[in-house]
Design brief:
185 residues; alpha+beta; eight-stranded mixed beta sheet; 5 helices; 8 strands
Amino acid sequence: RYPGSMTDHPAVATPAATGDTIVETRRTSLRKLTQDDAAFILELVNQPSFLANIGDKGVRTLADAKEFILDGPWRRDQPDGYGQFLVELKSDRRPIGVCGLLYRERLDVSDVGCAFMPEFWRQGYALETTTAVMEYGRSVLGVDKIVGLTAEHNHASIALLGRLGMTFERMVEMTDDDPGTPLYS
């Protein structure tokens, strides 16, 4: 049983969660990452905004990006149906970011998160995709409580969490050396 799950069984695949597409929004499709996405992930995780707000994942080469996709923190030890998903524009299948749910074992919570290339900020993609991912978590995975974790200085993410109906709950330690990360629920 996964924390926050309403059932004792893994989610049964529904038409929305079969094939390549996990969830769709009006303007985007979200799908599982593949090694073919390595060049995009290499660029995304090395954006100054990603490094400042999410952290350095140590991805420096295309080979690093492929390994990160196969066995990085977005996939390793994640229950079925969890992970970061590639966000593509429906219009031209161009990748613009990632969005998904991560199970945080240390905190026993399901965390919604996203990251977008800067040219796609302030266009509503983060709200659109996180709303869809949260609905996917509730309806397909059976998660009844989804939280948001963000850096204290990441005002854009804090505003997004507010638009998702979340408020600050408490400070948590993500790792032994974490000085404290705000948790919103």
